[in-house]
Design goal:
268 residues, 2 domains, single chain, 2-enoyl-CoA Hydratase, Chain A, domain 1, 10 strands
Length: 268
Amino acid sequence: MPAKAFYEKRNRVFYITINRPEVHNCVDTETAALLADAWRAFRDDDDAFVAVMTGAGDKSFCSGADLKQVSQGWGPVTEDQFRVQLQNLEGFLGYTLGVDIYKPMIAAINGYCFAGGLEIACMCDIRLAADHAEFGILNRRWNVGLGDGGTQRLWRIVGLGRALEMIITGRRFDVEEAYRIGLVNEIVPRDRLMARATELAEHICQLPQGAIRSDKEALMRGIGRPLEEGFRIEAEMMRTLMLRRDSMAEGARAFVEKRRPGWKRHGL
């Protein structure tokens, strides 16, 4: 039986796929565990530079939690396992509450992006959406809350007013509105979505990775902190970058000498 979620690495791009198209790629506990393993594998793989997250098929990216399983009390999860999950803050649908992945992550939204699926998309840094994609916090209709970062990430992406309206009403909206409010970075024809995601990922892979990761870490760690503390974190990351094996000096020399940088280790 095919895995409910799987990952594969091609060159330096790490593809993660939810593989339950028959149920609109909703996530049960088995799928969540596989997704958590995939995100941790990406985080820890030195040769994986960019992740692309998508759903199998062409109808749904992810429609959220498997409500059939939720109706049965999340199936095989024991009370102790549930408590550990909350303490570890990994999330219900995978590694969605992990905040220690400082590599770029792209969501290729190939259809329905509802409830927890929207939370997974918000976990990613860049969101590309097929022209038929739809969005909404539809779990509002069934009294299911947001437990995978939605209350914290969504308003930071689209603004407080819009996020509150989306969370409270649970309405469904199309990709054009998602693009207009900044939830989606780019709309792509559905038959070009994965090609475009790969194209973007490979472009990012060609850039020196050290500064990308340092800047993302500084941004993520600075969220919610006073401005002065954010500046301190940024300065710390800048100093760390300067002391790495391939320092900024090589990039600067390459600029002055009008040549490509000679990175020793992928510009890390």
